[in-house]
Write a structure and sequence with these properties.
The protein is α/β, with parallel strands linked by helices. It contains 8 helices and 13 strands.
Length: 241
């Protein structure tokens, strides 16, 4: 698979306030799974998929995270943006605004944990689905405190993004996204229209009649609390065994 034209980006600008209340006093991206910080794990997965560089946006209150990214040796450049943003959507829009030449990108949040082989299949499917403006990772495994429910048709074309499940709902968002140019442009216009949440941007994709498709991951674990680390580590251990 040829990924030279695809950019990889990580939103790591959240505060991690719930983890801090539970006693983890470093930025969330530095929370280790089996001894490897969340953000390092993501970057190394991207390396194996042929990424040329990884763009990371962090907030200005994370000196430990900035130092880690600057001092850790990876097999590719880390393009770091240090900026306080109002939301993950604003973080994504800033990445797009700063990189107007992007033709496609893979975006993840820092706290999404997935199996590398499923991620590989996801990227391959995105390359095959050239007509898709947006390609969303979804999973039947509900782990998030406030999940974004995703309704699709039988061909996995997304029909709705919902705050509450319906009788037809099978999936929730996995926090992994692949976008082409039209979808990235929509992120900019969505922020300009006053949207401040990723889920409202995703609804805007549908409202603007863009082609939005889903790819099913068996399981994606979202890290919000220390107890989620136990679930994630067990999940990753199952893959190894």
């Amino acid at each position: 698979m040829q990924l030279k034209e695809m950019e990889f980006a990580i939103i790591a600008a959240g505060e991690g306030s719930r983890l801090r209340k539970e006693g983890f006093n470093l930025p969330k991206p530095l929370l280790p799974l089996h001894g490897v910080p969340l953000i390092e794990r993501l970057i190394r997965v991207f390396v194996k998929e042929g990424a040329q560089r990884v763009h990371v946006i962090i907030n200005k209150q994370s000196p430990e995270l900035k130092l880690f990214l600057e001092k850790t040796t990876f097999e590719l450049p880390i393009v770091l943006i240090e900026e306080d943003t109002a939301s993950s959507l604003h973080s994504f829009a800033l990445l797009v605004k700063n990189n107007p030449d992007w033709s496609s990108c893979c975006l993840t949040t820092t706290d999404t944990v997935f199996r590398p082989h499923e991620f590989h299949a996801y990227l391959e499917a995105f390359q095959q689905h050239q007509h898709a403006d947006a390609f969303m990772a979804v999973t039947p495994f509900v782990d998030d405190e406030s999940p974004l429910y995703v309704n699709t048709n039988s061909q996995l074309r997304v029909e709705a993004f919902l705050d509450t499940a319906t009788a037809e709902t099978k999936y929730v968002s996995g926090g992994i996204y692949c976008f082409r140019k039209a979808a990235m442009d929509c992120a900019l216009s969505s922020v300009e229209a006053g949207n401040s949440r990723m889920r409202n941007f995703q609804r805007a994709l549908l409202k603007n009649d863009l082609q939005v498709e889903a790819f099913v991951f068996d399981k994606v674990v979202d890290i919000d609390h220390l107890k989620d680390r136990v679930v994630a580590e067990q999940f990753l251990s199952e893959e190894v065994s």
